[in-house]
Amino acid sequence: MARPQRSEEITQRIIDLIIERALPPGAPMPTELSLMQDIGVSRNSVREAIKALQALGIVEIRHGYGTFVGRAGSAALQTWLLFRTRTRGDDLSRLRDLLEVREIIETELTRRVAEQHSPQLIPRLEKCVDRMRVEGPDSVAADREFHDLISAEAGFDLARELTGLFWEVYRAAESELGCDLPTAASTADRHQPILDALILRDPLAAATAVHKHFEEVRRRTHARPYGSLAVGDQV
Question: What is the number of domains present in the chain?
Answer without folding.
Answer: 2
